[in-house]
Amino acid sequence: MAYFNELSVWEIAVNTRAHPAAGLACGETQIEERLLRFMNEFEFISLQPTHLDFYSEDDLVGMRCRIRLRERETGEPYGSVVHYLFRIEGGVIIRLDEGHDTGRFQAYLGYVHSLKTSSVPANCERRAKATRSPISTLLDCLDA
Question: Helix/strand/coil (H, E, C) string of the chain?
Fold first, then answer.
């Protein structure tokens, strides 16, 4: 990972009980492990910074991004705004602070967890809303 080194620090401001990739990661190895853990669980749909949400000053770069992702097991989508603040020295990210709407993200993770532990297959609720007969959809879900 050419953007980080063993002195780099990445902090994600989400309760570590809500998601294991949250909290503090120090050094290139921990940062890479965090990214792999997150990428195994979520598929990125988009990460869209805009020029209006981007600023820099000396060795600090900040941006606000609209993020969309999907939890891989359930297919459940998530969208929010994320704030990033990078401190860069010698072309390497020394510190990255990542801020989320923690209440929104924790509520999403709780919902995803409930889908995973439910006896009804994931996406069944969404499929039921898209069809004309809830009973036939339920039967289809039970056959799945």
Answer: CCCCCCCCEEEEECCCCCCCCCEEEEHHHHHHHHHHHHHHHEEEEEEEEEEEEEEEECCEEEEEEEEEEEECCCCCEEEEEEEEEEEEECCEEEEEEEECCHHHHHHHHHHHHHHHHCCCCCCHHHHHHHCCCHHHHHHHHHHC
CB 60, CB 80: distance < 8 Å? no
pLDDT at 122 > cutoff 60: no
DSSP strand pairing (92-99 vs 77-89): antiparallel
pTM for this prediction: 0.71
34-65 residue pLDDT tens: 889 888 999 989 988 866 667 788 899 998 98
